[in-house]
Amino acid sequence: MQRTEELNIASQEDQICINTIRMLAVDAVEKARSGHPGMPMEAADIGYVLWTRFLRHNPANPDWPNRDRFVLSAGHGSMLLYALLHLTGYDVSLEDIRAFRQWQSKTPGHPEYGQTPGVETTTGPLGQGFSNGVGMAMAQVYLADYFNRPGFAVVDHYIYAIVSDGDMMEGIASEAASLAGHLGLGRLIYVYLDNHITIEGGTNLTFTEDVGKRFNAYGWHVQKVDGYDLQQIATALQEAKDATERPSLIIARTHIGYGSPNKQDTASAHGEPLGEEEAKQVRKQLGWPEEPFVVPETARSCFRAALEEGRRWEQDWNTLFTEYARQYPALAEDWKAFHTGKWPEGWQQAVPMFNPDDGPIATRAASGKVLEAVAPKLPAVLGGSADLAPSTKTFIKELGVLKKDRCGRNIHFGIREHAMGGILNGMALSRALVPYGATFLVFSDYMRPSIRLAALMKLRVIYVFTHDSIAVGEDGPTHQPIEHVASLRAIPNLVVLRPADANETAQAWKLALTRKHGPTALVLTRQKLPVIDTTRYAPAEGLLRGAYVLAGGDHPAPQLLLIATGSEVHLALGAYEHLTQEGIAARVVSMPSWEVFEAQDDAYRNQVLPPDLKARIAIEAGVPMGWERYVGQTGRIIAIDHFGASAPGGVLTKAFGFTVEAVTAAAKQILGR
Known about the structure:
Helix content: 40-55%
Strand content: 5-15%
CATH class of the largest domain: Alpha Beta
Number of domains: 3
CATH architecture of the largest domain: 3-Layer(aba) Sandwich
Shape: elongated
Structural class: alpha/beta
Oligomer: single chain
Distance between the termini: 82 Å
């Protein structure tokens, strides 16, 4: 199905097609007076060969499941991608190209998933696209193993990416490359634009390593080509496809701003328009018309062949899948479930319930029990941890391990939180898998750029963050998260859940697994917590609404609100019992998720937090920032605004004022008792 005819390296048609890409980029950046023309000019030859000779896709249906993926990790060169999308027939018009970087256009400054047809991932921060591609390749391996049968390769696509010096310097790419080599991801093919230029000047200012040797050491298949020799490019891509046992890196010697008489090979070609006079000089050098945004019919005809090829590729695949469904109806049903996100019937009934008689249990341990019970029934769910599975309780023994020679559902990410975050996004971008990744809450900082992009792309990713407070204890302040919950809450479209006990943890997993339009973070304890007695207090299903009245809801006129999350809910309940015995009508609100609570209607929120009740105390073993919205000017926040210390967790919570006695005293003080 691939076009294999010999390339005529110097053909006029090739050159017209390549220069069309270059000049669309130049014109769009000039019109916007903003952007990065150098990279599209530099990589046009590579883009042309890849998109017309190798990339198997259907511009009329960007969502065809078995399409090859193309990631522009160097997202600042977005006009390369937009030009290719327009030329090959995606729903990206010439008017969209003219609207580059403008309000509500399909062509924003960096590619954004969900905004532009054909854009596979949001690539802004360098290194993110690199790691996303590794996640896409891991998803491909798992899906192929799960679904493919002899004679029915329903999952056999490749993942291509163009990466830059900046990607190579970012640590996340090194982490991801190391794991990709270890796993032997043979359908992963990256082209590295070795242009020797960064924003500050030549790469030799800071970057003198031998990239090829580094990637050889990672276990990659490495080649070097002239980025302007079309036959070399094509041959290297084919050899990369044939190297099925390991990922491939093609190092292409290129020149930023290629074709610009005065700005080629200069840092200024990276992030600013060429300027009117230099753009004229480029036109003259390339023999290009003076009119902007010209697409010669020769180029349009050549690129638009992708529409017919894509239609045929998808039609052939549909025919294959029809016969596949006839022979393997159960797998075909699974395929539908994976790609619609509809879970098999009965999975929620598998979620365990916990009883007070079972004894105290850490919410991280309860989370592990939920995963063990539910994951076997949800084959689209897989994940692992950054070398912390014994602590985060995220390893499911009976589901095997994702390795080079087998495809289990436990993933050993290694001590690579940065890469784990980006890889999870790439896996979720399959639109078939729901991945999870685990580490200590304090290390969520390493994952923050990826978490932010998951929220921006509305991806179904689940984070399991354990060891959630100063109660971590002896490891000391370096491992005791203080500001981390607040910082996660600051990310739009990320739902943060900090459950109070085992049953709230079970409900948190239900919410996370059913949430379809954004990532979810579970924030869990190291220390054991009592299971809340639901014969005395409200059931844990209230978590599904973000906050709920746990105790004191039957009192018609409460005098005081105690609002808490996680382990501190137990302090609130203890204080509630003391206050009740003294005739003080208190109400305890468990608030595991601000975001979910804020999404409820006014009536429900006012029912949980009566607006006229001003005596309020919020309790959380983290920074107080943000709790003002719930306690108001007259309320009080029992929190921690300093780093922790090295001591047993129980000693620290007492020393820092997280006791039932301290909460009770604060309640009496606020009531003037």
